[in-house]
Design a protein that fits this description.
Length: 321
């Protein structure tokens, strides 16, 4: 898997864990606050190279401090409450023996961007710079996004082991996964002539969108446009707008990602996002990764032909859908 898939997985699990913690009053689940301390201990050790330990291993029921790295002289509080008062309450505890140590605050459920702009009482003169020492899911993901791929892979494996089964309980069905299941049973080595002809020059659209590497994928899989058209026709017999929901899902990914990426990079990020969506769908039928990537590529190329993703040359008519 590439770095985009690793990052998307980390992002999905951190956001889902944060949601479960913030909704803990509504959900009958395990004590997520204690679980979060252990989870973020491992997470920060990987991301930042700390050697954090749970403070209770050193001092039972230590006030204000959840994690400690003695060698790096770093103290960490992990909290589902993200307020100025919460941070100052921690800093005002009996921490005199840690004078000169670094203090970090991790908000595990809420955005803390506004807190990074505030000033704080710090009576024990801990090293605490709010703009860089207050962490939340957003700031952590920003660091992960720019991490080397080997570190992203390590985070992926860590989070998969820690949270994979627990958070996947919230997986829901997706029409995309259903279509993948249907397509996976097709003999893709045989051509098909069913469906409408392509109503525009594909090569012109590739050039218009500066697609170079992606051109090979489009050229290889555009022959399946008729096959997908037939599958969608059968699929829609089970309910109106089912195929439309699949195509609009791809278009939504395109719309969201084009502010960050363009050309080939945008095309392959759309594929990665679709693959991740299928993997986390409760109705996903397990197939080899290569087959999943093949099926997603065919569906994405079909969406390209139907002008659901990427711009069509303005002088040309849109493809028939």
């Amino acid at each position: 898997m590439n770095r985009t898939i690793y990052f998307n997985y980390v992002e999905e699990k951190l956001n889902l864990l944060g949601w479960r913690i913030s909704s803990r009053g509504k959900l009958n689940i395990l004590d997520l606050n204690l679980h979060a301390e252990s989870f973020y201990l491992g997470l920060f050790n990987i991301i930042y190279g700390y050697s954090l330990k749970n403070m209770n291993e050193i001092s039972q029921n230590a006030e204000a401090i959840d994690l400690i790295d003695i060698s790096a002289k770093t103290l960490v509080q992990v909290s589902a409450t993200s307020t100025k008062e919460k941070i100052e309450s921690a800093l005002e505890k009996d921490l005199a023996k840690y004078k000169g140590w670094d203090f970090k605050f991790i908000s595990i459920a809420n955005d803390s961007s506004s807190l990074r702009k505030k000033n704080y009482k710090n009576p024990h003169n801990l090293n605490f710079v709010p703009s860089i020492d207050i962490h939340d899911i957003s700031s952590i993901l920003s660091t992960v996004l720019h991490s080397p791929v080997d570190k992203q892979r390590e985070l992926y494996e860590f989070i998969k082991n820690e949270l994979g089964h627990e958070t996947d309980a919230l997986a829901v069905e997706s029409n995309l996964a259903t279509v993948i299941g249907i397509l996976a049973k097709e003999d893709l080595s045989s051509p098909t002539n069913c469906g409408n002809p392509i109503a525009f020059n594909v090569d012109e659209k590739l050039v218009f969108n500066n697609l170079d590497t992606a051109k090979d994928v489009v050229e290889d899989y555009k022959i399946h446009h008729g096959r997908i058209n037939k599958i969608y026709s059968e699929f829609d017999k089970a309910g109106q707008n089912k195929s439309l929901s699949v195509l609009n899902g791809l278009r939504k990914s395109y719309t969201e990602l084009r502010s960050k990426y363009s050309a080939d990079e945008l095309f392959f990020n759309i594929l990665d996002t679709a693959i991740m969506k299928v993997r986390k769908s409760s109705n996903h039928i397990q197939i080899p990764d290569e087959e999943l990537e093949l099926c997603v590529s065919i569906i994405a190329v079909d969406a390209f032909i139907r002008c659901k993703i990427f711009k069509n040359p303005e002088v040309k008519q849109n493809a028939a859908s």
